[in-house]
């Protein structure tokens, strides 16, 4: 079963980082105010970034590393993925 690390772009330009086994279900939770305390106060606009992992432990480690990045570094990570997706 794959696990995903994701970054949500929230209203106001902030980011929320998390991990899940189901991106669609988790996004629905966030949109309904049931996903996380942060996204209750900072409503998510869209999924800005995702990575797929083969285990929950790997996804959790990556989530922890991403959470340590500052706002600008997260923006760069998102831009890099967008460039890769456009060139595919």
Description of the structure:
49% of the residues lie in helices and 27% in strands. The chain has one domain: GIY-YIG endonuclease. It contains 4 helices and 3 strands. The protein has helices at 23-31, 37-41, 56-67, 71-87, and strands at 3-10, 15-20, 44-53. With 88 residues, it is an alpha+beta fold.
Radius of gyration: 13 Å
CATH superfamily: GIY-YIG endonuclease
Strand content: 25-35%
Q: What distance lies between the first and last C-alpha atoms, to the nearest angstrom? A: 25 Å
The pLDDT mean sits at 95
Q: Indicate the CATH topology.
A: GIY-YIG endonuclease
Task: Please give a handful of descriptors for the protein shown.
88 residues; alpha+beta; GIY-YIG endonuclease; 3-stranded antiparallel beta sheet; 3 strands; 27% strand; globular
Short description:
This protein has 88 residues and is α+β, with helices and mostly antiparallel strands. The protein has helices at 23-31, 37-41, 56-67, 71-87; strands spanning 3-10, 15-20, 44-53.
Strands, helices and their partners?
Elements: E1 3-10, E2 15-20, H1 23-31, H2 37-41, E3 44-53, H3 56-67, H4 71-87
